[in-house]
């Protein structure tokens, strides 16, 4: 089963998108551990919404594009990991360890754990 871990940060919090060298080192250790466990498929961090971002919305059939930054949004997806695990419980355990990494550095974070749909998309 594939699960996506998505972490959200408030980009208005100082330092939230500018991690310390210690945090980067700890994150590298976590990524290495997940990779060695054989469950990591992909992982990336995202830039602030002020860095070459856009939001596309469709309302009543009309598309609207808004360039970042998204000042009205408190929490933005700041990164993700894609894991191949045996169960939701295993995905949650990895997510808790991931969230704890942020907590040890004084960063408030929310991590969503979502199962990836494995069926064909319906049209």
List keywords for this structure.
Alpha-Beta Plaits, 4-stranded antiparallel β-sheet, alpha+beta, two-stranded antiparallel ribbon, 123 residues
Task: Provide the fold topology.
Elements: E1 2-9, H1 21-36, E2 40-45, E3 54-59, E4 62-67, E5 76-84, H2 88-104, E6 110-115
Antiparallel strand pairs: 1-5, 1-6, 2-5, 3-4
Helix pairs in contact: 1-2
What do these coordinates show?
- With 123 residues, the chain is an alpha+beta fold.
- The protein has one domain (2-73, 85-115): Alpha-Beta Plaits (2-Layer Sandwich), CATH 3.30.70.1060.
- The protein contains two helices and six strands.
- The chain has helices at 21-36, 88-104, and strands spanning 2-9, 40-45, 54-59, 62-67, 76-84, 110-115.
- The strands form two sheets. It has a four-stranded antiparallel β-sheet with strand order 2-5-1-6, with helices on one face.
- A hairpin with a 2-residue loop joins strand 3 and strand 4.
> How is the largest sheet built, in terms of strand order?
2-5-1-6
Q: What's the name of the CATH homologous superfamily?
A: Dimeric alpha+beta barrel
Overall structural domain count:
1
Tell me the CATH topology.
Alpha-Beta Plaits
Number of strands: 6
Question: What is the helix tally?
Answer: 2
Mean pLDDT: 91
Estimate the strand proportion. 25-35%
Radius of gyration from CA coordinates:
16 Å
Which CATH C-level class is it?
Alpha Beta
Second rung of CATH, namely the architecture: 2-Layer Sandwich
How far apart are the first and last residues' alpha carbons, in Å? 23 Å
| Shape verdict | flat
Low-pLDDT sequence parts? none
- Amount of helix: 25-40%
Largest sheet: 4 strands, antiparallel
Taken in chain order, the helices and strands follow as EHEEEEHE
């Amino acid at each position: 089963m594939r699960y996506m871990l998505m972490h959200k940060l408030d980009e208005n919090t100082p330092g939230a998108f500018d991690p310390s060298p210690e945090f980067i080192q700890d994150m590298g250790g976590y990524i290495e551990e997940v990779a060695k466990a054989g469950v990591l498929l992909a992982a990336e961090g995202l830039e602030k919404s002020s860095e070459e971002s856009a939001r596309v919305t469709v309302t009543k059939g009309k598309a609207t594009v808004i360039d970042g930054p998204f000042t009205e949004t408190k929490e933005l997806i700041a990164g993700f990991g894609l894991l191949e695990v045996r169960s939701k419980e295993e995905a949650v355990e990895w997510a808790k360890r991931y969230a704890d990494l942020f907590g040890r550095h004084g960063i408030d974070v929310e991590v969503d754990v979502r199962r990836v749909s494995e069926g064909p998309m319906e049209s």
